[in-house]
Amino acid sequence: MESTAARSRPRDGGGGTDGSTEQTTTGKDTGTTKRRTGGKTTASGAAGRAKSTGAARKGAAKKTASGRAGSRGTAAKSGNTDAPGHHDEFGGPDMVQLLTPEGERVEHPDYAIDLDADELRGLYRDMVLTRRFDAEATSLQRQGELGLWPSLLGQEAAQIGSARALRDDDYVFPTYREHGVAWCRGVDPAQLLGMFRGVNNGGWDPNGNNFHLYTIVIGSQTLHATGYAMGVAKDGAESAVVAYFGDGASSQGDVAEAFTYSAVYNAPVIFFCQNNQWAISEPTEKQTRVPLYQRAAGYGFPGVRVDGNDVLAVLAVTRAAVERARTGGGPMLVEAFTYRMGAHTTSDDPTRYRSDDERLAWESRDPLLRLRTHLEREGLMDADALAAVEEESDALGRRVREAIRTMPDPDTMAIFENVYADGHALVDEERAQFAAYLASFEDTHGEGN
């Protein structure tokens, strides 16, 4: 049977167009590397840095990880990496892992996966290109081209692994950070840029890709997904629905209601929680007394924690969850235990609330470096293959920058439209005041000349 990863490979926004190579500099809070015309680093960004300082970083990882895990009450000894169900101190003994941070393949008694070389290389390509697009978007925001950008840096494995587990007829309800999932569902990256530039409201047809528009309101998409899944069940369709959300959203009442309804109606929905450890500046341990995946038991359906930086484990767990949903098993909660390497958004400064030691510890678990190490060790990807991915990454970077250049500026007065059907005197007054404010800049510019 053809694998999902291979079947869905053409559904991406990849490829490049002609364009000049430019310097692209990312803000320091993204954790990505600067890319220059001469002697540029790889598109894998933080993966390259982690590889160059691996020995020192492993020491920081062991020290910081054990401290954080211990504070959550989930620390455990690593044990033999060849043993079934191997885990490390980051995620606790119940965390599903198939590829260690060192790139070693391990087995799990409940979740197995068997991918060929092309599929493994495809997963690596997806993660590299997604990271490159994300870095370019962050840089474009710093240059004033976007109003805001929420980076996914560090969460590539959670997004690519889960998205490649889906079929075309499955339906996805994202938050606002699922750029990797959008890539896998065939959404053009330029459409994401248009939304954060303020020139469209999403730009893509949700039914064309079975990928809903981004949801900014925290947690509400879980209710949308649950309702859609209930409809799918009533229609008799053999498809699954996936709702993405973060650890912060798990504290929202909408999520609790979605859990309740999905359990009662046995809806074919997977709640995919990317636990990146921080709800903006609030750490996970201040949001919950138990690991997030254990919350599912209180609602009557299973939950599982997976290493969110292990693309193979995420793929295996999500495949099992969607297959369970398609065959009448009902909802399931998947907690992808990962880390937000950059800022919450480009308006955030994570150095104000978390330490460099913590970031370095997680950087040593970089999802791209992990898979790349495995591919190189097994002889599945040589220097030429890696260079080809880098070339494709550069082409994507050029295409993204060109897309921004051809976009119009946002309509600054559009915010006042469609507030009231028949207009309103106060809105008219505010519109006039704002127009006068904008005009004052033009007058100042004219005087300067």
Automatic annotation (TrEMBL):
<dbReference type="GO" id="GO:0016624">
    <property type="term" value="F:oxidoreductase activity, acting on the aldehyde or oxo group of donors, disulfide as acceptor"/>
</dbReference>
<dbReference type="GO" id="GO:0009083">
    <property type="term" value="P:branched-chain amino acid catabolic process"/>
</dbReference>
<protein>
    <submittedName>
        <fullName>Pyruvate dehydrogenase (Acetyl-transferring) E1 component subunit alpha</fullName>
    </submittedName>
</protein>
<feature type="domain" description="Dehydrogenase E1 component">
    <location>
        <begin position="125"/>
        <end position="405"/>
    </location>
</feature>
<dbReference type="Pfam" id="PF00676">
    <property type="entry name" value="E1_dh"/>
</dbReference>
<feature type="region of interest" description="Disordered">
    <location>
        <begin position="1"/>
        <end position="96"/>
    </location>
</feature>
<feature type="compositionally biased region" description="Low complexity">
    <location>
        <begin position="39"/>
        <end position="79"/>
    </location>
</feature>
<dbReference type="InterPro" id="IPR050771">
    <property type="entry name" value="Alpha-ketoacid_DH_E1_comp"/>
</dbReference>
<keyword id="KW-0560">Oxidoreductase</keyword>
<keyword id="KW-0670">Pyruvate</keyword>
<keyword id="KW-0786">Thiamine pyrophosphate</keyword>
<dbReference type="InterPro" id="IPR001017">
    <property type="entry name" value="DH_E1"/>
</dbReference>
<dbReference type="GO" id="GO:0000287">
    <property type="term" value="F:magnesium ion binding"/>
</dbReference>
<dbReference type="InterPro" id="IPR017596">
    <property type="entry name" value="PdhA/BkdA"/>
</dbReference>
<dbReference type="InterPro" id="IPR029061">
    <property type="entry name" value="THDP-binding"/>
</dbReference>
